[in-house]
Design goal:
This protein is an alpha+beta fold and 247 residues long. Helices cover 20% and strands 32% of the residues. Strands 1, 2, 3, 4, 5, 6, 7, 8, 9 and 10 form a ten-stranded mixed β-sheet that branches.
Amino acid sequence: MKRLKCIISYDGSLFAGYQIQPNGRTVQEELEKALARMHKGSQVKVTASGRTDAGVHAEGQVIHFDTPLAIPGDRWPTALNSQLPKDILVRKAEIVPESFHARFSAAGKEYRYKIYQDPFRNPFKRMYSCHCPYELDLQAVEEAAGFLIGTHDFTSFCSAKTDVQDKVRTITKLEVIHCGKEIELRVAGSGFLYNMVRIIAGTLIEAGKGKVAPNDIHTILAGRDRALAGKTAPAEGLYLWEVFYGN
């Protein structure tokens, strides 16, 4: 048996999320169906760095699985892509030690959140970015973003549905990239809570609208109350961009 690590991309628009569930098409299900065909009907369990919700995209999701097939690591992308639907792509594959784990070996992640500003909703962007019908105050967005960098208790930026007790996380980077009508938030950190990036995005959008003052971020963090932060931004703007691993 060999362990394969794969970097995959997917368009989350037509998926009910990454993880297999009783009803709804999922990324994991499509991966495991493709692997089952390659393994003559035998089930192959796929493990990912983490789950993504319905409508969320991935540029650099990482998975691993074990296989007895004698296919060289660099041939796996071609082999798997021939079996996968067009909204999933294996970008890279390599044989890794048995100790590697896509989730537990991860040292951090980067997410990106895409926003486009236009009075009218663009039908070609509606599944891939968050629409804002008017121009945001970028200076306010950048100032508010700066207060989120570092180690904080992110209870206010976490879904109330989560059962995680320790909500202290470290954000190492939060960049606001502006090009024309488009804004991209680039958020990297050692780990993220459920809906954390989307709530951060929603709060920064509120700052850009003038509904949240940049200095309010301190109060929101200290309050440890989900009701203090902005709305959860739509799923279609979010991308799991990269997963980081140590040497």
